[in-house]
Amino acid sequence: MTRAFVFTNHKGGVGKSTSATNIALGMVNVLRRAGSANPRVLIIDTDSQGHASLVTTGRKDYGADDSLYTVLMADRANAPQTLMNCIVQSQWDADLHVLPASPMLEGAERELMGVAGAPYRLADPLSKVANQYAAIIIDTRPSFSLMTEMGLLAATDAIVPVEPRYLETVGLTSVIQKINDIREGWRHPNLRVSGLLVTKMDTRVRGHNHLLAELKAHPVLGKLLLGVIPQNEAVSYAHRDHQSLFTYDPRASASKAYVQVVASLVRYLSQAGA
Amino acid sequence: MARPNNGNTSRMDDLLASVTSDLLTDTPQAFADNAIRVERILLEMVRPDPVQPRRVLPEHIHVAFHNNRATPTQALRELVQTVQIAARQRGRPFNNVLELLPNADDEREEETTTALSPEETLLRDLVNLAMTIRDDGQVNPLTVVDVSQGVTRLFRIETGERRYWATWLLRDFIPGYTGDGMIPCIVIPAARSSVFRQAKENTARSGLTAVALARQAALLLLTVHGYEIPAYAVGNDFFRQALDLDLRAKREYTELVLSAMGGIKKAQFSLIKSLLSLSDEALELADRHGIEEYKLRYVVATPSEYHAEVVRQIIDFNLSAKQIRELCQGESFDEAVSSDADKLSPAALKMAKVTQTIHATTPQELARALMQQEGDAAVARARLQAMRKLLGETERYLSSD
User: Fold this and answer.
1) Is the per-residue pLDDT at B108 higher than 60?
2) Whole-angstrom Cα distance, residue A259 to residue A30?
């Protein structure tokens, strides 16, 4: 079964899109170097802001005919084919594919709100094409909306990026609770919280160190700690140039930290039989 | 000024202590797919049956909901707003749905109850049911059919649609809901879903309207004749296909169908089915107001353009079956009825009284009054046409007398 990792947190600016895109590219490269027959990774951008689509494909003008919106509005029978038609190759790597977001996704939420089975509109077609990829990475919007529910229902593993600040950590508990509610309520037993990713870590800030220590010491959350990504200006510059962090500055501290995370996830994929 | 204690970690400890391994590692129950089971299911995963003959919501809301133009909350909000308008017109405005519940201290309760519109009665009953669920819990599970496809999990209600709407009402409109958005359901695998069981459940209940029974009869007939029952909202024309079908061609199902319809006779089944030839508007009115089959059978015999008007007259003047027969067939009343003035309906007496005051008004005034009453010139004209017909019949009766 192809693992689908959803990066979610209802707090904005915690590094969901940055982490999703760079980890996806990292996975492609590690899988390729490991000699995997299928190193392809698919990014699904469910955030109507389309940041992940923009940095990986250089475009943000996707619309009614070539984006996730198209898939969500397609007939159930045609949805898998529509999904395949809407997937584009990223500019970063030929094996990194993107199902781009569109600003129209805002409207899709309103249009689909009363539709029976609406939260499965992504999971259903994705389940039919997932085996063409080694892994799927889903980027979500910073809220718990229908679109985020769709992302969670299409995923097998939730990764929660979190900044090491008090309020963000407060939010972490509600994120985990929400994921749990989705798993129980929508009958999706395969979904689990697989990792916490501490982002924008500044070791010079005492509060950051303290909270990281608290998380590490926690009996449950400590085991989920997937990695710590340091605060790094290279991230902003890479975004500006529509480049991956690894391409922009492979020696940047954030690049090195993401490599560690990618290694953990690929190890996890191999253990899971991918 | 005291500085915040940055070293105080007790808040964080409390917070993190709330995260337990249960939240992360427990796998929800796994179920066998081929057995009937009781489960707690998220309300959003449950949908009413769009072709259920017994309608809970008014027709226009039912259609909007099943055509995905309204969420359950929006459908209920539409119902509440409809009832608010009706209630305001009747001089008892309300802001909160809880105000619809009977008040033990209100001495006018009896007279108020008699004047409730069908929508008011529906909403009041739903609120009442919601309060029972809030106070005592959902004791009686819904019966749902597992209609999941692929990874899409969905359950269609076979019985218990009123409890479904009451739970939504409780969740979104009534304060004090402490549930988790789940509803207990008996889950039936799709292969074991049965239109006959649903029919039996429906006919076993009191309050099933004649129109709902007619739809039920049609659904059974269409099923035994091999028609595909759609999974989306259908109009009356779908049910009307049954007007061309009968049980003679499917004798092996006759007993089963009649039994599912509550053990009725073939002749009665035929009468019930024939109600589907009523016009759409007449069907909706008759369904909303729960008009009985023995009253509607006379309306069926009239041209379809009169159906809605006659049904409206039945509602407005609370006509008896005999009066309806007279109205529809143009025959005289039975002597026993006409000779005894005490047995005349208040509506007939009221209309007789009106004939004495005919010079007290002008055509213009009457036209304005009709417009004020009906709000639409076409409806006002229809009223006058119906009255003209009634007066013609009355005159004929008087001259033959």
Assistant:
1) no
2) 9
Looking at the partner chain, which of A114, A166, A173 has a beta carbon nearest the beta carbon of B19?
A: A173
What is the band of B357 on the pLDDT scale with cuts at 50, 70, 90? confident
Question: pLDDT of B130-176, one tens digit each?
Answer: 999 988 888 889 999 999 888 888 999 988 999 999 999 999 998 87
How far apart are alpha carbons B299 and B314 in whole angstroms? 10
- Residue B286: the pLDDT is 93
- Any idea where the domains of chain B sit in the sequence? 31-193, 194-277, 301-401
Q: Tell if the CB–CB gap between A114 and B19 is shorter than 8 Å.
A: no
Pairwise CB contact (< 8 Å): B16 & A189: no
- The CATH architecture one would assign to domain B31-193 is Alpha-Beta Complex (3.90)
pLDDT at A168: 80
Contact present, B148 and B187 (Cβ < 8 Å): no
Mean pLDDT (chain B) is: 83
B186-196, pLDDT tens digit by residue? 998 888 778 88
CATH homologous superfamily for A3-271?
Answer: P-loop containing nucleotide triphosphate hydrolases (3.40.50.300)
Q: What is the 3-state secondary structure (H, E, C) of chain B?
A: CCCCCCCCCHHHHHHHHCCCCHHHHCCCCCCCCCCCEEEEEEHHHEECCCCCCCCCCCHHHHHHHHCCCCCHHHHHHHHHHHHHHHHHHCCCCCCCHHHHCCCCCCCCHHHHHHCCCHHHHHHHHHHHHHHHHHHHCCCCCEEEEECCECCECCEEEEECHHHHHHHHHHHHHCCCCCCCCEEEEEEEEHHHCCHHHHHHHHHCCCCCCHHHHHHHHHHHHHHHCCCCCCCCCCCHHHHHHHHHCCCHHHHHHHHHHHHHCCCCCHHHHHHHHHHHHCCHHHHHHHHHHCCCHHHHHHHHCCCHHHHHHHHHHHHHHCCCHHHHHHHHHCCCCCHHHHCCHHHCCHHHHHHHHHHHHHHHCCHHHHHHHHHHHHCCHHHHHHHHHHHHHHHHHHHHHHHHC
The answer to whether B28 contacts A173, with C-beta atoms less than 8 Å apart, is no
ipTM: 0.73
CB of A167 within 8 Å of a chain B CB? The answer is no
Q: For residue B16, which residues of chain A lie inside 8 Å, CB to CB?
A: 169, 173, 214-215, 218, 221
Distance CA A195, CA A157 (A): 8
The alpha-carbon gap from A22 to the nearest alpha carbon of chain B, in Å, equals: 26
Pairwise CA distance, residues B320 & B294, whole Å: 10
A77-87 pLDDT, tens digit per residue, is 899 999 999 99
How far is B19 from chain A, CA to nearest CA, in Å?
Answer: 7
Domain regions of chain A by residue span: 3-271
Lookup: tokens for A22: 């760079």
